[in-house]
Amino acid sequence: MNLKKIFETDDDKEIRSIMFDSRKKNPDSIFFAMKGKINDGHRFIEQAIDNGAVAVVYTDEIAHKRDHIAYIKVKDATDAYVSFCNAFYDYPTEKMNTIGITGTNGKTTIAWIIRSLIANFNRCGYIGTMGYCYDDKIIDSKMNLTTPKSDELFRIGKEMLDHGCKTLVLEASSEGLLTHRLDQVKFSTAVFNNLTSDHMDIHHDMESYFQAKCLLFKMLGTDGKAIINIDDPYGVRLLKQSKAVNVTYGIENAADYQAQNISLHNDRSEFDLIYKEKSYHICTNLLARFNIYNLLAVIAVLNENGYEIERVLPYITKLETTPGRCEMVEVGQDFNVVIDYAFTPNSFEKVFAFARSITADDKKIIAVFGASGDRDHLRRPGTAAVADREADIVILTYDDPSTEDMLEILCDLKSYFQRLDPEIILDRFEAIKKAVSLAGPGDTILLLGKGSDEFILDKNGRIPYMSDKKAAEKAIELKKKKII
Length: 484
What we know:
Layout lengths: L16 E3 L9 E4 L12 H6 L2 E6 L11 E4 L3 H12 L8 E6 L4 H12 L5 E5 L2 E4 L2 E4 L9 H13 L4 E5 L2 H5 L10 E4 L7 H4 L2 H13 L6 E5 L3 H9 L3 E6 L6 E8 L4 E7 L2 E7 L4 H16 L4 H8 L10 E2 L7 E5 L4 H13 L7 E5 L9 H12 L2 E4 L9 H9 L8 E2 L3 H11 L5 E5 L6 E4 L2 E4 L3 H13 L4
Parallel strand pairs: 1-2, 2-3, 3-4, 5-9, 5-10, 6-9, 10-11, 11-12, 12-13, 17-21, 18-19, 18-21, 19-20
Antiparallel strand pairs: 6-7, 7-8, 13-14, 14-15, 16-17, 22-23
Helix pairs in contact: 2-4, 3-9, 11-12, 14-15
């Protein structure tokens, strides 16, 4: 791309790539000297040039400038970076029907199922916690962020567009919104599922967290669709301030898309969907009450985007479920094993409610979980309180300690229990084996926090882990052989 196409400059250098990391070789690239919470990009300008940058976008005065380098001064380097990324990849989200999903819980499930359903009719891409995918194949599952940085986001968008995708479903995290990664994305539809306490290490209070979520809806034009859960009090607030075409869903309150007569089982969920005074009976393999909300959002998105309910219904009975989200492990055992990413107090409430709904009163709920390091420590008292109240047995185990000591994390977590005395087993597989060994017929084991992750995040980065599903399957086989 020629610099003149984007910036007011006489320099007509051709830019072949965008440099984000000044430490990596990147010939004929452009470097943006952005200011973050810790680092100031101006400190790395010389290193960027040494590694191939031929253009530098900056805000503060530069004492020394090299010959043959294009220096472009702007008011806001981050804004310039996002705009350039969008232009460099030829504005991909403006050429697809782009749907954004936000909320504390359910983003991944909603986005993943929307993608899988639309894929029955047209090519559809997905970007989020699971990585990014199209054509039912996960192209890259190792992205470190739910909402990737702008250069990666628009590059992926261009790749999907070139592949023939007509729709992009995107998880919009509050951090991604707050750090302007999505500023140039053209959204046609946005979903708000819920808001509960989380990420207080970033937002500090619920009002700031809510306002970050609202940024997504400010990106909608007046003809955009805002699809909002009005059973959530923050959804009610958002509904009042949204300038888009508002569409509501819920269970408790009258809504455009409302679920009634809900019946939950350990292999399916059933309910009546009420839409425009017409009733549709829904039977789905999605489990738990919280997934009813997720499915209502999915149906609303598809119907509002031209995929009529009648066309979608046949595919809802057997949905492509999201790995690690309320996922049942079934290898012939006589007890339930449920895997879920739950790591907040609210998500614990929901998954334990599901466990109670599929577990007889005289049977046990055994919970295996830990807590991550370097993040919102306020989660720990809340998750412990829910497990202390709802579980019969708790085993605390390895999660993602990051730079903290895992044993110290678990001892801290254990200190919040009052009724139960959890056992600490650091090795996650050994903890799962112990839970399986304790499970009797009809009991339910909850494996929480890691979902489908095949890694553990510690101070050295990502280290391989077999996944909770494989660990559970292996432990169940050992129990069948009476080894444990």
